[in-house]
């Protein structure tokens, strides 16, 4: 059994380290890859905003007033004429849906999409609009919160000074710190504090008889790990699963450290052995109040930072301003590429569909076209067949770049073919109420342990 653990432990450590780095989540306030979004109240005159955009030197801005039919057909074509006659029919509902891309979910703000190359010009645009008394919101990339991993590293360093067995602690602390670096969110930070304290306990009982049993029987360690896992899930589901992976990676690091120490110890002629069992040794290594104060202080500092740096974003989901963007959840009121393809199909085939045969395959349309032979002058009939298939979708998708105006479809295309229209917050830095509650629970369990130790010491006296 030990042989399998010996070879699998380093593999688990490396795999968890790689996966945590690959699937890291960094806070960002940017809604679109290649566009910035400027929002103004809906009552703001469009001409005022467009004038400010032009004066700022911004070109190819995508606005509601600049939208036309997103299809490469002549204005005088029979297809466009039929579209105008049936504009309100269900087949052409896409045109109304695309208008929703220019408003937030509550219809409070009107949106303008600015190409990402005009970063400095966009800042100037916002200042110009605000100088005119127009409230203006701009999405932007959130700065990486270096303070969170720095405090985590500082906490690990201070615990390292007081821990009994420093090498196991240093090896085990790698994964939790990398996890916090890859997921710099407040619930994750507080969960990391608890995991470092549990690692502190394990390192102090390192290589003593009954160490694992003692850790389990002393309820504080299992309770803290359970709360830490729930706290990580309160940040996001992905953070929760990555935290579980981090626990496995830490176990792999400790197991690897154990076997490396065994290898070194076997080379020596004399190896000291601990006499006292884990039950007779303090998990705090005689530094109860110091170590608990450090960890409790770190958690309290994280909670304080929530209210200092995120006071504007501590809201329930219904109170958040939500804007159109690429989301994992499809919003039926926003346009999707499949609807755009279908709209193109309806426009191009409506004049040629039979009004009598309702049961025929709607994905294939065949009609006659009459062309004049340039050599003979004879008008000949041509059979043209259109099929709604992947080839048609590809043609429509690639044709977006050929549109003669700055269409919202170009914004959608900037996200790729797998674009999924949905509403998203202007910043993934938002923290939900459950996350805040779990941060406080982490603090309360540390205070509970702290007070319990004080009471026990008073009883023993």
From TrEMBL:
Chain ranges passing through the membrane: 144-162, 188-206, 281-308, 433-455
Key words of the record: Membrane, Transmembrane, Transmembrane helix
Keyword Membrane in annotation: yes
Protein's recorded name: Uncharacterized protein
Organism of provenance: Treponema bryantii
